[in-house]
Write a structure and sequence with these properties.
Elements lengths: L1 H25 L8 H27 L2 H23 L20 H34 L6 H25 L2 H28 L23 H26 L6 H20 L6 H20 L5 H25 L7 H26 L5 H19 L10 H20 L3 H5 L1 H21 L5 H4 L2 H29 L2 E7 L2 E12 L2 E8 L2 E7 L17 H16 L6 E5 L15 E6 L2 H8 L7 H4 L3 E6 L2 H10 L6 E6 L14 H10 E10 L8 H11 L2 E8 L7 E8 L8 H5 L2 E2 L22
Parallel strand pairs: 5-6, 5-8, 6-7, 8-9
Antiparallel strand pairs: 1-2, 2-3, 3-4, 9-11, 10-11, 10-12
C-alpha cells in the first residue's frame, strides 16, 4: 500500500507542479494573455486523455507481466529523452529561445506544439500513473478499494498547486524549479519501477480480483451507453466550469499563476472530497449551495463595480459547488473496480471535450465569454436529468420544505432581473418565446425520464410539484443567461473575440455635450474613444487627454525642441495600439511606431472599421508592427536596428489584466536599448485592482532612473481617471515646471522586490 501511495502521490504532485511552471515560462512569448493558461489547460487535458487511454488499453489487453514490461520501457525511454534534452536546453523541460514564435499567427497551435516538444513525453507518463497503478493495486490487493488512491492522487495535485504560488514561485527561479522537477521525476520513475517489479512477479489469476467496494453498485455487464454518456457529460460540465471561471477571473485581473491556480485548486478539491468517501457528498447540502452560488454569481455579473474580493469569492463558490455537484454525482455512478480504467477514460474524455469547447471552439463562435453562462445552465440541467433518473433522489420525495426552497429559488431569479433593470427584457415577447420553448422541452424530458419508475413514486403529486419548481428555476436560469448575453451585446456595433480577448465598438451620444462618439472596449474596460464632430475628431481623449501624463510629456518635448531650435521630428514608440489616439499628437516630420499583438485591434483602428480615424488623420509618419512588442523589439535589436525613440509608451494592458512580462528587469533592459540616451519611458498604470507604482519604483531604483507619477481625470461624463509613470535617465524633461507641478515624486526607496522574468508576485500590489 505504501509503495503504491508514494508513487501515485509523487506522480500527481509532479503532474500539477509543472502546469503553472511551464505556463509561466512561455507566457512572455505569447503576449502575456490569460488565454495562454487556458490553452495550456487544454493541452494538459488532451494529454491526460491520452494517458488514460493508454492505461485502459494496457490494463485491458495485457497480462500483469506484459503491463509492467511495457510501462517500464516507456518510462526508460522518457528518461533517456529528458537526459538528451538537458544537453540542448538549460533544463530538460524548458525549451531554448529558438522556440520563441516569430509572429503572432496561430498562437493556440504554436502553444500546443511547444508544450508537446518540451513537456509532452514526461507529462504523458505521469498521466498514466493514476488509473494504471490503481488497477495494479486492485489486482494485487483484493478486498481493498482502489478509489481512495484516486483521492490521494488529487491530494498530491492540490498540495502541488497550493505550494507553487506561496512556496515555490517566491523562493526559486524558473530554471531551478525545472531542474528540481526533473530530479523528482527520476525519483518517481524509480518508484514506478518498484511497483512494476512487484506486479510483474505476482501470480496471474485467471480473472481479475473483485473489489468488495459496496458503494460501487454498477457491475461491468450492467454499464449502458447512457451511463457512459453521463460519465462524459458530468466530467465535461466540470471542465467547462473550470476553464470558463478561470477566464472570468483572470481576464479582469492578471494572467498569473495565483489566479490560474485558485480555480484549479477548487476543482481538484471537489475530486478529493467526492472520491475519498461517498458520504462526504451530501445532496441536500451541495445542491442548496449550488443554487445560492448561482444567484450570487448572477448578482455579481449584473451589479457594476463589484470589488475584486467579491468577484473572486462568488465565482469561486460557484465553481466549487458546481464541481461538487458534477463530481459527486459522478462518484455515485462509478462502476466496480473491474471497469476502473474505462471509467477514468470516460472522465478524461469529458474533461478534454470541455477544454476543447472553451479553449478552441468558444473563441470562434462567441463574441463574448458566454461559455460561462452555458456551463452554469448545463450543470443545472444535467443535475435535473440525473435526479429524475434516480428514484431515491429528493426530487421524488414528499417534502414541503423542498417545494418552498425550489420555488423560492425560482422567484429569486426574476427578482434579481428586476433589480438589474432587466425585467422588461425578460417579459418581452422575444424572451417569452424562449420561456415557452424551454418549458415544453423540460416537460418532454421529465416525462421521458420518468418512464419505467415505480408507480408509487411517479404518481405522487408532491414529487411533481418539486419537479415543476426545479423546471421553472431551470427555465428562469436560462432566461437570465439569455438576458445576460443580449444585454452584453447592448449598443455594440462590432463585437469580436479571439485568442487575446473580446473587443466591442459602442456608439454613444451622451459623453460630452451630446457629441457623438465611438468607443472601443476590451472586455469591460474602455480602450479608447473618438468623437465624430469635425471640431473634436482629432482631439486626444480618455486616458490621453489634456493634462494626462502622456500629454504633459509630449508637450514637454515640444518645449525642449522650441528652446534648443531643434528641427528634428519626435520619434515615439507605443506598445498597444488601442484606437490609435496617440497619433493625434503627431506633427509633420514625427514618427510613430505602434506595436500591437491583436490583429483585430489593428483592423478596427487602422483598416476596415471606419469608426476610428486617428491614424488616417495624423500628420506623422506611422508604422504598425504586429506581434508581441517585447519579442519584436528583441528582433530589432538583434538585427542592429533599434528605433532610437524619444518616447516609448507602454499601454498594452488588456482589460484590467496586466502582461507582467512587460514590467520586468529584462523588459526594461530592452526598452532602454530602444530609447535614446535622453529618452523617456511612459507607462500607463490605470487599474482598478492593482497598484503598479511599487513595481516601477523598484525598477527605477535598479536602473538609476528619475521617475514621477501623474494622476488626472477626464472632464467628460465618463469620469475616467488615469495614472501614468514617467521614467528617464535625467530630469531634462521630467524637471520642467509644468510636469513637476502636475506630478508627484515617488519615495526614494523601493519597497518591493525587483520583478524579473523568473520572479513576479501580485500579492503585495493588490489594492
Amino acid at each position: 500500500m505504501l509503495t503504491y501511495a508514494v508513487a501515485i502521490f509523487l506522480s500527481a504532485f509532479l503532474l500539477f507542479q509543472v502546469q503553472p511552471m511551464i505556463a509561466k515560462y512561455i507566457l512572455p512569448w505569447f503576449g502575456g494573455t490569460a488565454a495562454v493558461w487556458t490553452t495550456c489547460l487544454l493541452f494538459f487535458q488532451l494529454l491526460l486523455l491520452a494517458g488514460y487511454g493508454y492505461s485502459h488499453f494496457v490494463g485491458s489487453r495485457l497480462r500483469p507481466r506484459g503491463q509492467a514490461l511495457v510501462h517500464a520501457a516507456a518510462i526508460l525511454a522518457c528518461v533517456i529523452v529528458m537526459l538528451a534534452l538537458s544537453f540542448i536546453w538549460s533544463t530538460p523541460i524548458t525549451p531554448g529561445p529558438e522556440w520563441k514564435p516569430q509572429n503572432a499567427e496561430f498562437p493556440i497551435v504554436k502553444i500546443l506544439a511547444l508544450l508537446f516538444v518540451s513537456i509532452g513525453f514526461p507529462y504523458f507518463i505521469l498521466s498514466t500513473t493514476g488509473p494504471l497503478l490503481q488497477a495494479w493495486f486492485a489486482r494485487s490487493q483484493p478486498g481493498t478499494s482502489p478509489y481512495r488512491l484516486y483521492s490521494l492522487s488529487n491530494l498530491g495535485s492540490l498540495i502541488a498547486l497550493v505550494a507553487y504560488p506561496f512556496v515555490v514561485e517566491p523562493a526559486l527561479n524558473l530554471t531551478t524549479q525545472a531542474l528540481i522537477w526533473s530530479a523528482l521525476f527520476i525519483c518517481f520513475s524509480i518508484s514506478i519501477w518498484i511497483c512494476a517489479r512487484q506486479i510483474g512477479r505476482a501470480a496471474e489469476p485467471d480473472t481479475p480480483a473483485k473489489s468488495p467496494d459496496e458503494s460501487a453498485k454498477i457491475l461491468p455487464e450492467e454499464i449502458s451507453a447512457v451511463q457512459y454518456a453521463l460519465w462524459i457529460s458530468l466530467a465535461a460540465c466540470g471542465s467547462v466550469m473550470l476553464l470558463a471561471t478561470t477566464n472570468q477571473i483572470s481576464q479582469e485581473v492578471a494572467p498569473v499563476p495565483f489566479l490560474w491556480i485558485l480555480p484549479l485548486v477548487l476543482y481538484l478539491l471537489s475530486f478529493i472530497i467526492c472520491f475519498d468517501n461517498e458520504q462526504w457528498y451530501r445532496r441536500e447540502i451541495f445542491h442548496s449551495l449550488f443554487a445560492v452560488a448561482v444567484v450570487g454569481s448572477c448578482a455579481t455579473v449584473y451589479l457594476p463595480n463589484a470589488s475584486i474580493g467579491v468577484q473572486i469569492i462568488t465565482f469561486s463558490l460557484l465553481l466549487f459547488s458546481a464541481c461538487m455537484v458534477c463530481h459527486g454525482e459522478l462518484v455515485r455512478l462509478r462502476p466496480a473496480a473491474e471497469h476502473l480504467t474505462a471509467f477514468y477514460l470516460m472522465v478524461a474524455v469529458g474533461g478534454a471535450l470541455g477544454g476543447i469547447f472553451v479553449a478552441a471552439i468558444a473563441p470562434h463562435i462567441f463574441s463574448g465569454y458566454w461559455e460561462f453562462y452555458i456551463g452554469v445552465w448545463a450543470c443545472a440541467a444535467l443535475l435535473f436529468v440525473v435526479l429524475l433518473r434516480d428514484p431515491e433522489s429528493w426530487i421524488h420525495r414528499d417534502t414541503i420544505g423542498l417545494v418552498l426552497a425550489v420555488f423560492g429559488c425560482a422567484l429569486a431569479l426574476p427578482l434579481l432581473l428586476s433589480l438589474s433593470q432587466l425585467h422588461d427584457r425578460m417579459l418581452s415577447w422575444r424572451n417569452a418565446e424562449y420561456v415557452i420553448a424551454g418549458l415544453a422541452m423540460l416537460t418532454i424530458v421529465a416525462i421521458t425520464a420518468r418512464r419505467g419508475q415505480p408507480a408509487g413514486k411517479s404518481n405522487r403529486r408532491p414529487g411533481r410539484m418539486i419537479q415543476l419548481g426545479v423546471a421553472l428555476s431551470l427555465v428562469m436560469l436560462g432566461v437570465l443567461s439569455i438576458s445576460a448575453v443580449t444585454s452584453s451585446v447592448g449598443r455594440r456595433i462590432v463585437a469580436e473575440r479571439n485568442f487575446y480577448g473580446t473587443l466591442a465598438v459602442v456608439s454613444r451620444d451622451d459623453i460630452d455635450a451630446n457629441n457623438h462618439a465611438y468607443l472601443l472596449y476590451h472586455g469591460q474596460i474602455l480602450h479608447g474613444l473618438q468623437f465624430t464632430s469635425p471640431d473634436k475628431r482629432n482631439v486626444p481623449t480618455a486616458y490621453y487627454g489634456r493634462d494626462s501624463g502622456i500629454d504633459l510629456l509630449i508637450r514637454g518635448f515640444l518645449r525642449r525642441s522650441a528652446s534648443d531650435g531643434s528641427a528634428s521630428g519626435l520619434r515615439v514608440g507605443v506598445v498597444g495600439l488601442g484606437v490609435g489616439t496617440l497619433a493625434a499628437y503627431g506633427r509633420a516630420g514625427d514618427f510613430y511606431c505602434f506595436y500591437e499583438i491583436n490583429p483585430e485591434v489593428i483592423d478596427l483602428a487602422a483598416a476596415k472599421s471606419g469608426f476610428f480615424t486617428y491614424l488616417r488623420d495624423s500628420k506623422a509618419r506611422e508604422l504598425i508592427v504586429p506581434g508581441d512588442a517585447r519579442l519584436s523589439m528583441e528582433h530589432e535589436i538583434a538585427r542592429g536596428e533599434p528605433r532610437n525613440f524619444d518616447v516609448l509608451v507602454i499601454d498594452a494592458f488588456s482589460g484590467d489584466s496586466i502582461p507582467v512580462h512587460l514590467l520586468t528587469r529584462e523588459a526594461f533592459e530592452i526598452y532602454w536599448r530602444e530609447l535614446k540616451p535622453n529618452g523617456v519611458l511612459a507607462i500607463h498604470i490605470s487599474n482598478r485592482y492593482l497598484d503598479l507604482r511599487p513595481v516601477l519604483r523598484s525598477l527605477a531604483v535598479n536602473f538609476g532612473l528619475h521617475f514621477v507619477w501623474v494622476h488626472a481625470s477626464t472632464k467628460d461624463q465618463l469620469r475616467r481617471e488615469n495614472d501614468w509613470v514617467l521614467l528617464a535617465r535625467d530630469d531634462g524633461i521630467l524637471g520642467q515646471d509644468e510636469i513637476a507641478k502636475n506630478s508627484t515624486p515617488f519615495q526614494a526607496q523601493a519597497s518591493l522586490p525587483l520583478w524579473t522574468d523568473d520572479r513576479t508576485s501580485l500579492f503585495q500590489i493588490l489594492k
